[in-house]
Amino acid sequence: MGPRRTRGEDGATLLLALIFMVAVGLILTAILSLSGNDLANTSNLLSQQSLEFSAGGAVNAAIENVRYDPVAFASPGQNCLPGASVQLSYKLPISVDCVSVRNPTPPAPQAFVPPVTREVTFYACVTASCPATSTKNVVTATVDYVDQPTCSSTSTSTCGSQFSIKSWLVDTADN
Question: Domain-by-domain residue ranges, the chain?
Answer without folding.
Answer: 38-170
